[in-house]
């Protein structure tokens, strides 16, 4: 019985952490996607499984937004793309940059590195 109670408490705590919204000023990599997008599927196979475990994923967690659904209020300042996937790096309520399309795993990491470097430049100012 004690294990069940401990497990339920742990599960509830984890659920709160996972579902907690990011701070408004935290960096995020917003992925605009839509059902049936073959390039989104390729990204999901090649990058998504490991993204959260990378330095980039720690710095700018991936946030997915389906462009066929309602647009999130907190992203009102981000222009919606009809081309998917599009990745938008957002921090402090502003768009830092975007990657239109998925250019393959190596080039994606290169382009994302350039965007992350822009974050570092703005923090140094």
Extended strand count: 4
What is the class in the CATH system? Answer: Alpha Beta
β content, as a range?
15-25%
Give unreliable regions as ranges.
Answer: 9-24
CATH architecture level-2 label? 3-Layer(aba) Sandwich
The biggest sheet, with number of strands, parallel, antiparallel or mixed sense and barrel status, is: 4 strands, mixed
> Could you report the average pLDDT, rounded to the nearest whole number?
84
How many alpha or pi helices? 5
CATH superfamily: Glutaredoxin
The total domain count is 1
| DSSP helix fraction | 40-55%
Order of helices and strands: HEHHHEEEH
Protein name: Transcriptional regulator
Keywords: Signal
InterPro entries: Thioredoxin-like_sf
